Amino acid sequence: MKISTKGRYALRVLADIAEHGTDKNVSIREMAERQEISDKYLEGIVARLSAAGFVKSGRGKYGGYRLTREPKDYNVYEILNAAEDSIALVACLEDDADICPRADSCLTMPLWTHLQHRFRECMEEISLQDVMDRKFSV
């Protein structure tokens, strides 16, 4: 699985809103400038985040976006799941995949299922606040 720019940018956008939107809405233009992402591409990402209920919008002179929860209440899995078309490690585990006719006899299916489960658990343990606090090192 390769996390696309949509997923990476969704994390950056939510972190940007969390950082700059504590007392005001954050506009697409402001985020686009800070994150060096085109307004148009950012609109598509924010639309996905809004549809998932992660951000709410305000209109008018002080319009823009705000988080619907505290950063500690978002996890990386749900953010990537909202932004990406799929976060399955292999195609046969995708939500919309037809059941593989070999699933019952496939020797590797339990491995992929196990790895997918562990990957999801790991991502669910990391909050947006953890990302903002840079709690990770190599």
Automatic annotation (TrEMBL):
<dbReference type="InterPro" id="IPR000944">
    <property type="entry name" value="Tscrpt_reg_Rrf2"/>
</dbReference>
<dbReference type="GO" id="GO:0003700">
    <property type="term" value="F:DNA-binding transcription factor activity"/>
</dbReference>
<dbReference type="Pfam" id="PF02082">
    <property type="entry name" value="Rrf2"/>
</dbReference>
<dbReference type="InterPro" id="IPR036390">
    <property type="entry name" value="WH_DNA-bd_sf"/>
</dbReference>
<dbReference type="InterPro" id="IPR036388">
    <property type="entry name" value="WH-like_DNA-bd_sf"/>
</dbReference>
<dbReference type="GO" id="GO:0005829">
    <property type="term" value="C:cytosol"/>
</dbReference>
<protein>
    <submittedName>
        <fullName>Rrf2 family transcriptional regulator</fullName>
    </submittedName>
</protein>
<dbReference type="GO" id="GO:0003677">
    <property type="term" value="F:DNA binding"/>
</dbReference>
<keyword id="KW-0238">DNA-binding</keyword>
